[in-house]
Amino acid sequence: MDFEFAVDGGQWLGVVIGSVLYMVLSMVWYLPKVFGTIWMNDEGLDEEVLRENASPFMYIVTFAMALISNISIALILSQVGGGLMNGLIVGLILGGGIAGMAIGPHYMFALKKRLAVIQMAHAALLITVSGVIIGALT
């Protein structure tokens, strides 16, 4: 079995767009009126603590992680082929089937079932959207 992992021109655009959307969707996801208040309460945090500890470094590292995630999706799509449907399927498998399932037990064993659902759905959404975008641009 030969693997030739490569990210082509259209996929690079998808990687960048997917990474930016990763950040935007996360900011919306954690707005107080969406899941932010529930997340803060269940994690034992408040806006003051988050504001005091926020730093540009956290956003830079998060964006780097988004890039790595999106490059990984692009590399997998380079093996299965592009297109909107392949991107959707790969995104759902990676987001819901792998990332979500890896996140879930952490919160379940911490007795934070509501957080498990919020975090699992967040991962599934971000990765599925990235898969769709990268697939569509391939």
Structural account:
By secondary structure, this protein is mainly α. It is built from six helices and no strands. The chain has helices at residues 9-29, 32-43, 47-53, 56-80, 84-109, 113-136. The longest helix has 26 residues, at 84-109. It starts with 8 loop residues before the first helix and ends with a helix. The model has no long low-confidence stretch (mean pLDDT 94).
Attribute tags:
single chain, mainly alpha, globular
Radius of gyration: 16 Å
**What would the principal axes of the Cα set say about the shape?**
globular
**Termini, distance in Å?**
23 Å
Question: Would you list the SSEs in sequence order as H and E?
Answer: HHHHHH
The biggest sheet amounts to: none
> How many DSSP-defined strands?
0
Structural class: mainly alpha
Helix content percent band: over 70%
Unreliable spans are none
**Count of separate DSSP helical elements:** 6
Outline:
This protein is an all-alpha fold and 138 residues long.
Task: Summarize the helices and strands and which ones pair or pack.
Blueprint: H1 9-29, H2 32-43, H3 47-53, H4 56-80, H5 84-109, H6 113-136
